[in-house]
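Journal club prep, notes for RB
We'll compare a predicted complex against what the paper describes. Inputs for the benzoic acid case:
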Amino acid sequence: MNVWLFGYGSLIWRPDFEFLDRRQARVHGWQRRFWQGSHDHRGVPHRPGRVVTLVPESAGHCDGMAYLLDSEVAHRTFEALDYREKNGYEQVEVCIEFSPSEQVDGIVYIAPTDNHAFLGPAALDDMAAQIRICEGPSGKNSDYLFDLAAALRTLDAHDAHVFELETSVRMISMNGSGEESAR
Ligand code: BEZ
């Protein structure tokens, strides 16, 4: 059986796997939040960055990109993602919506609130200050945020949490006060 995989973070703009098809999609009952700590990609153990996870919100939804994986290669893709996202993410089955009249079952990677790297909510300015200064083996935390915001704009998908954080990081960068307020 071919498998649909829903991406809502870096998978939107950088799927580094083979796929048969990709389509813009939405999952209901979840919202995207920069609440997961990253000490292996966009931060380091003594200064973890913030990356996205999905948290339950009955009235919420999250827009992203769904990828159709061939049954023959899906297990290799999941093995690679399980390794790449070993810092707290697990596979969850979701209903993926392409339009109100077209839905499929699929898989999404979610870092649940009880995982060891979960940071949870913080004031917008504090999250922005943290994202501004953090950097890890995969690059700057701020580039991850900016790339995500740009990818969402390409999809014409609005996400107030992401866009407000983006604005806040850019403002702090202009004012040059990020490092101090993150300490
Ligand atoms: C994603 O882009 O959907 C994704 C986010 C975090 C971990 C794995 C995948």
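Talking point for the session: The chain is about 35% helix and 35% strand.
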